[in-house]
Amino acid sequence: MGDSEITAARNYAVGAEGRLTMDRLPMTGSSLTSAVDELGHPDYVTDSAAGATAWATGRKTVNGRISRTPDTNEPLPTLLELARREGYATGNVTTAQLTDATPAALTAHVTDRACKGPADMAACPADTWSRGGRGSIAEQTVALRPDVLLGGGADVFAQKVTDGPFRGRSVLDQARAGGYQVVRDRTGLRTARPDRPVLGLFAPEAVPAEWTGAPASAGGTPPQRCTEDNPTRPAATPSLEESAKAALELLTTRSERSGPAGKGFFLQIEGASIDDRAHDADPCGQIGETLAFDRAVAAALAYAQRHPRTLVVVTSDHGHSGQILPLEARSPGLSTTLVTDEGSHMRLGYASGAPGEVQEHTGVPVRVAAQGPQAHRVLGVHENTALFGTLRAALGLHRT
């Protein structure tokens, strides 16, 4: 979600002179987004695993690796682990699988982001139980026991554990044995009790996007309006805003019930399919997910208005492929023309991958905006690792 993706959503929905909710946070700076190779040399375009590891641990790593060092492949303590250790309630909300790179960077340590479930460990032999590791991302996530986990990925949690204390049982069985109440839809989320941790699995894989429309194509598409609906998205699927509100309520109650020493909570909320739809040069899906994320930002800011000691940070792990082009531009890649809510035409182009192939990330800096305690620390231009220090300072966390 770079400035191009934010601007496309702003232009489409509220106009060139309008403002999204995320535009209104008072402190705004830039985050540099490079990763490193195993020798520590710059890799100028990060993936989501290295990008999320940077803010989760304060260290850069190699693309594809989850919260492990780039050279020795050792586990790095994460913000969520440190917060949990010091008495905070913790949560992780996403529209991706809960085992996808961004949520995983807070709850797991694996050599390769592909090692989502027990059946997916080919790229991570040293992380298996038989080799002295702690298993897949899913196994490590439920073993860590964050208070709230909401997203997709039911198929991964249905996989059978192949080794370790839960061998022969599913990861979902492991979660239930650890006290999780499992919810599958909006009704289940609304009735979830705060006295036990909550695992919400709202889709077999990623949660379907909210909007649909014609994808960008070679030579461009006729001018189109996006369809603010997706027939493949079950009606009972909670929106990201609903998940955000539920997580905030559950974590507040969990924290308050911990007694006078209750400190508060740490929560990450990810609008994952902004990236996913951009990879597929799907402008309507991308814009719809950006606006869905913006509504989750609004929910966070409304919460902060009632709880002024809350720090809210809005950022991204990397820029993406979409560019806003002149209407007369002849793009060598894929393009589309959208009719905005202002009635004007806006052309979007995708050319970071060949037509018919995945569109790639870009190495641009991304926005980081904040409101609340320590928000001033995001001003200026910083490495993506700096956000770890900002959040650690706001929470008063020790390093180890």
Brief summary of the model shown:
With 400 residues, this protein is an alpha/beta fold. It is built from 12 helices and 15 strands. The protein is globular.
- Tell me the helix content: 25-40%
Instruction: Give, in order, the helices and strands.
Output: HEEEHHEHHEHHEHEEHEHHEEEEEEH
What proportion strand?
Answer: 15-25%
- Backbone shape: globular
- State the major sheet: 5 strands, parallel
**Radius of gyration (Å):** 20 Å
Give average pLDDT, whole number: 96
Give the strand order, joined by hyphens, for the main sheet: 6-7-5-4-9
Report on the architecture of this protein:
The chain has about 400 residues and is α/β, with parallel strands linked by helices. About 30% of the residues lie in helices and about 15% in strands. It has helices at about 5-15, 50-55, 80-85, 100-105, 135-145, 155, 170-175, 185-190, 240-255, 275-280, 285-305, 385-395, and strands at about 25-30, 35, 40-45, 90-95, 150, 180-185, 200, 215-220, 265-270, 310-315, 320-325, 335-340, 345-350, 365-370, 380-385. The strands form four sheets. A five-stranded parallel β-sheet has the order 6-7-5-4-9, sandwiched between helices. It has a four-stranded mixed β-sheet with strand order 10-14-1-15, covered by helices on one side. A four-stranded antiparallel β-sheet has the order 8-12-13-11, covered by helices on one side. A hairpin with a 5-residue loop joins strand 12 (about 335-340) and strand 13. Helix 2 (about 50-55) packs parallel to helix 12 and helix 9 (about 240-255) packs parallel to helix 11. The longest helix has 24 residues, at about 285-305. The protein starts with a helix and ends in a 5-residue tail after the last helix. The relative contact order is 0.19.
